[in-house]
Amino acid sequence: MKDAGIDIENIKRFKLNKNNRFILDSFTRNEIEYSYSKANPEEHLCGFFCAKEALLKTIENGSYLLKDIEITHLKSGKPVIKILKTNKYKFMLSMSHTKEYGCAIVIML
Fold first, then answer.
1. Fewer Cβ within 10 Å of end Cβ, the chain: N or C?
2. Which are the catalytic amino acids?
3. Residue 104 β-bridge partners
4. 49 burial class (0-12, 13-18, 19+ CB within 10 angstroms)?
5. Rounded Cα–Cα distance for residues 90 and 81 (Å)
6. Domain layout of the chain by residue ranges
7. pLDDT higher at 60 or 89
8. Each residue of 70-108: pLDDT tens digit?
9. At what angle do helices 29-36 and 41-59 cross, to 10 degrees?
10. How many helices (H) and strands (E) does the chain have?
């Protein structure tokens, strides 16, 4: 296992409707609903995807699918990442984006 993972993606990749197979296979229902409640859902989907990819890089065992990972937010707005099937791991998450790219870093605690 590594202590951290990072990912960056082009936001254009996520300009799809919420019933697209890639969206349905990659994101939880909560993430899809959250993203499509925003003016630019592709920015949020891209950030979530980057966070999931960064988390998978910290674990390196291939045991989890993208939909096994969920990004939520605390009331303060701080993003939180968790693996739905287990409480075995704890992580810190930071996400950011420009108009073109989203990125995330995950640190395993």
1. C
2. 57, 97
3. 7, 95
4. buried
5. 8
6. 4-108
7. 89
8. 999 999 999 999 999 888 889 999 999 999 999 999 999
9. 150
10. 3, 5
Q: Could you tell me the two tokens for 33?
A: 């609903």
At 5-31, the pLDDT tens digits run: 999 999 999 999 999 999 999 999 999
Q: What angle do CA 82, 16, 86 make, to 5 degrees?
A: 15
Q: Which residue in 75, 102, 108, 105 sits closest to 93, CA to CA?
A: 105
Q: How many CB atoms lie within 10 A of CB 100?
A: 9
Angle at 73 between CA 88 and CA 38, to 5 degrees: 135
The amino acid present at 68, given as its one-letter code, is D
**Strand 4-10 with 69-73, pairing:** unpaired
Q: How many residues does the chain have?
A: 109
Q: Which residues contact 58 (CB under 8 A, 6 or more apart)?
A: 1, 2, 3, 4, 5, 91, 106, 107, 108
